[in-house]
Amino acid sequence: MDISKLNSILKKVEKPTRYTGGELNMRVKPLETEDGRRRFRFALCFPDVYEIGMSHLGSRIIYNVLNERDDTYCERSFAPWFDMEQALRENRIPIYSLETKTPLADFDIIGFSLLYEMCYTNILTMLELAGIPKRSRERGENDPLIIAGGPCVCNPEPVADIMDAFVFGDGEEVMNELMDVYAECRRRGLDKRATLLELSRIKGIYVPAFYEPCCKNGVFASLKKLEEQAPDRIERRIVKDLDHAAYTGKLVVPYMSIVHDRVALEVFRGCTRGCRFCQAGFIYRPIREREPDTIIKQADESLDCTGYDEISVFSLSSGDYSHIHELVPIILDRYEKDRVSVSLPSLRIDSFLKDDLEKIQKVRKTGLTFAPEAGTQRLRDVINKGVSEEDLLRSVHDAFVAGWHGVKLYFMLGLPTETDDDVLGIAELARKVSREFYSMPKELRGKGLRCTVSASTFVPKPFTPFQWEPQIEVSEVLRRQALLRNALKGIRGVEFSCHFSETSRLEAAFARGDRRLGEVLISAYEHGARLDSWDEHFNKEAWELAFSENGLTCEQFANRRIGEDEPLPWAHMDAVVEQRYLLNEYKKAYNAETTRDCRKGCNGCFGARCREFCGRTEAL
Amino acid sequence: MRLAVVFTKEAPVRFVSHLDVQRLFQRAFRRAKLPLAYSQGFNPHPLVAFATALSVGSTSCGEYLDVTLTEDMAPEEFIERVGPELPEGVRIVEAFDISYSRKSLTSAMRSAKYSARAEFDKAPGEDAIRNAVSELLSSEIVVMKRTKGGIKPVDIRPMLISFELVKAEADTAVFAICGVLSAEGGLNPDTLLNVLFEKLGVTGTTDVSRLETVLDREALA
């Protein structure tokens, strides 16, 4: 790497520390082990910019897990922003790892974290800047092995032609198994295909080249196995004992501000609520908790080695943690003298946290966010959100009494069965929140209410009870947004923000799409689509061109209702939650029938495998 | 007590912005478990102040900050505790007690010395460079500067204390520059070099390193 050339371009780009590395706690390892063996080089790639990627807890756990291995050196690389991409191209500098500034093509394995569908074009940017062919079949024996993990692996098909292998589920254990098998394959001198066959024997690893999808009448029909020895279904990996599982270890501390710039303490994984739109609620089951002692030990270590002054209690629903009322006061007391503030994101409205809120406020006020998701009780029952208007009003009341005057309320538009009454119900709810604030005596409440109503567009996702549902048409999304915006006008202290609908539609297509979308993705990239999750850079024309060139439409994937008996493009991925269970939930949704929290008793979502994976047949 | 600290910002951290340098020190102080004094108010923050900012991409051998502690600590102990917590490229050169002072370091700042390396796209020749430097020194140096009231012509010559050509090779040259640097403003060496480039009719890149920030320590009292 020509460092002086790199320096001259870093002088010109925005936020150069995205590309410099050298942060505190960055792992530095010689390229050979002490006994002189070459370490396997693993490039952990995040297909979005640095400040997003460094905020992802999972990647940071994997970074630690891989670097704990003596035979492996794991380095990081992130998607470049537009200016840097252009500068790298103009100067013919290949994309490199932050740790040693090694071009990605020189690595043994490149692993991408796939967190959301809208990052897929960034994978192609990174491969192209690395000089690595984009399609798995175009790569030879000397190219790195390209793998991917993360929640998008639920339906890997849209990127199946790009990747050599996928890791499905929790990565903490499977990454070690993968490296062990890889090391053995290298020792035996196996070629790429033979290596992939060995990897496919590991539970949770999917090698897409061993399968071929077939379409009939323009829809996915079946998946044919091309390699006899490959598994029929790929079972999601589940770390059974989270309390003893690997965590982030010595956290790398970025120089620049990142999105989640604090110590994140994962208190549990999974969620027992069963909100029917929520993919995370199903694909991270069963619930696995960490002991408070373990969490505090990890907090101590993380604060000591980073100097951060903020901790966030991290999970899908922090208020549901069994020991939350024990843990929050302990953390607050323990670090108060060090002026460490605590944030509790992902709080549910129905968790009673008044006392905790007052304590949190003692250190520093952080924002409060509530997610009622839908405007009426009927629709909240359809989605099994299980919170009531009273819950919300009581929670905001508590928050206002405790001195907060800023709250964010999250909603979704386009949920199954939604009517205009449900949309207007959102405004009604906001009006009641506003009234709750202004009906308090002036001396008891904060200065002025800042209530942000945020409405995203519902995206049906695999492994949810709504996986068969269509997304509503773009014109309809826009109409409902306008309806809501209008209804919110004039409500004191309330602001409205909503998500761009084109990207939501594309997200819906890629979430439930099949392998044909791989070529659409590559065409879109070639027509200039980049960093698609950044609305202001969303290149609508590139995507339209890409779909039409491939004889497909975005609507046929996003806006189509999938028949209950139709084969699903992701049916070979076994998320352990039973299809039968999801279908039953789907039917209950249409009857606005709720399902209890599985902490209150097992609902049988794993079918015959409940005992093996969850074992929670009794209420907690 | 209040300590003044002289530190370096070398190549590995040259692209770290001023704001991020501030955070870098705050975190290092926290890791070193210093008895930091905090401001009062809604969002208390540690009492750490920097004399001046350094532009992103530049390196320096002499930057100043001051930090207030709730307990007394010998400057040597301070260096011993904080030193190991700093990233590669940031070193503490000196620390001294300024508890007697309530003035900001910025108010005592007078000038700064720089070493600047220029890389030309085509070699202008040593004599041409030398002539251009002495011409610049002997007249007004008017540059267009963006101010609140729009873009205006400003003479930067009064900000320039000395300007010398140290070494010239084919397409590179090294200069020693000394310029005013105070609370009211100062010389930007990159601006000066751009004028020089224009005068020479060449383009190229510059690499500026601050060698020293000159503080009038007596002015702190």
Structural features, described:
The complex is a heterodimer of chains A (620) and B (221). With 620 residues, chain A is an alpha/beta fold. Chain A has helices at residues 3-10, 50-53, 57-68, 82-90, 120-130, 171-187, 192-200, 280-283, 292-306, 324-336, 354-363, 377-382, 389-401, 420-438, 474-488, 501-512, 517-526, 540-549, 555-558, 579-590, 610-613, and strands spanning 40-46, 72-78, 109-113, 145-149, 165-167, 205-206, 211-216, 219-225, 234-235, 263-266, 268-269, 288-289, 310-314, 341-343, 368-373, 406-413, 450-457, 494-498, 573-574. Chain A contains 21 helices and 19 strands. In chain A, helix 5 (120-130) links the parallel strand 3 (109-113) and strand 4. In chain A, 49% of the residues are buried. With 221 residues, chain B is an alpha+beta fold. Chain B has two domains: 2-100, Pseudouridine synthase I, catalytic domain, N-terminal subdomain (Alpha-Beta Plaits, 2-Layer Sandwich); 109-217, Alpha-Beta Plaits (2-Layer Sandwich). Chain B is 23% helix and 39% strand. In chain B, strand 6 and strand 7 form a beta hairpin. The chains are: A alpha/beta (620), B alpha+beta (221). Chains A and B meet through helix 1 and helix 9 of A and helix 1 of B.
Quick overview:
The complex is a heterodimer of chains A (620) and B (221). Chain A is an alpha/beta fold and 620 residues long.
Supply the key terms.
heterodimer, A: 620 residues, alpha/beta, 6-stranded mixed sheet, 4-stranded parallel sheet, B: 221 residues, alpha+beta, Alpha-Beta Plaits, 9-stranded mixed sheet, two-stranded antiparallel sheet, 11 strands, elongated
